[in-house]
Amino acid sequence: MAERIIKYDPKIFKGVTFHNVTTAFANGSDTPSAYLDRCLETVELREPKIRAFASLNKEAARAAAKASTQRWTTGNQLSNIDGMPVGIKDLLETKDMPTQMGCEALEGNFPKNDNAAVWALRQAGAVIFGKTITAELGGNHPGATKNPFDLGRTAGGSSSGSAAAVASSMMPAAIGTQVGGSIIRPAAYCGNFALKPSQGGIHRGERQATSMSTHGVHASSIEDMWHVAIEIASRVGGDPGYPGIIGPTKAPRAIQAERLIILETEGWAELDDTSVIEFEQILEKLAQNNIALLRRKKHISIENLETHISDARHICSMITAWENRWFQRNLVDRFPDGVSERTKATLAKAEAMKPEDYQSLLLKRENIRTAYANLSPLADAIITFACPGPAPSWNGDLPGQPLAPWPTGDAVFNYPSSMIGTPVVTIPIMAVNGMPVGLQIMGQRGEDARITSIARWIYENINPVTVTQPT
Fold first, then answer.
1. What is the pTM of this model?
2. Which residue of 175, 289, 296, 369 has the lowest C-beta tally within 10 Å?
């Protein structure tokens, strides 16, 4: 029997949100301090079982919320997210909390710096009150976080704590990062909205080591998701050489797509029948709203992309493994017992590569990007699963058995967007046996606002689909 902290039905489930309380802040009927206290009460209640946080700084959070309350009282609020409690994935540096990256070798690591995104959030008046648990070094060796909708299942990775904290209503939004599927997949498993921006859309600060990494946002509403992302980007811009996310300060209005491409990816064959049935029901509802749905069998350019991404899992994983190689090698050399065997196994694969292997992978990635760009005239966006069905069960590796390959779930539906650098929005619109299954909308680079608009229309106009199978 599944142990559930929260029941999930996308038709009725609502997490804690922020955008809808600011009017009360302005008229004095609520305050950021009171809002934070409610969040902390939820943390106190649910954190012992969910284990979403690596560290908390309640004292600093209360001081920040008090300052925000004063600004709202005098009409001098700094932004749409002034007073919003936000969690920070424990890969990003924070000046007031350690940055231990889910790794025993980095226990006690405390740079006392703020990542660029964290600095921007503070400048916008956000309340930074906790570091959320990450899989080790942002890889696939899981931390302690549980899925709030079934404690026997993973919350995804590597942004597991961010996804679970938002799903548990401990806060309205949290920062995640993605190099393979670490924003979109946990959001899909935990019933969040999430934005993985265009590559370079949010300045990564000290996190510049890999070519496909992005910072993004988990939230309980599409409005809060956008507000956090744009408030960061409007202050620090994008990565070096990138303009950053561009768009309105308020969440973009809903826009109905005219044509959507259905992308299967190499993960299609791994889907369970129930998830496929639900997805087809969503597609049927879209078609009933006069949205044309384009499939690979009838369009050679879609088939061309599908062929190019048929080994996306390998391409994406090995590019990242190579790029992380030297940092991880130095860490293992210094702390041989402080890094997991799972991470060491990935390192061994990277160290078996040669520069020409990496070059070959980069060429394949570039071909994929070209094939994807060629789809731009064909449709407004791409639609597909954000995860391969419900979150899998996870209670640890079995003694004497090989390490599980995907303990935080398979990122197979997320690798294409990570390699291409496209913006993605996850929509919590499906459930199988009380477990979230996310949908994702992908656009072309730089279309973050437009994709948010399309995702918003779908969420506001297409009724969620749920299926409960007899046990």
1. 0.98
2. 289
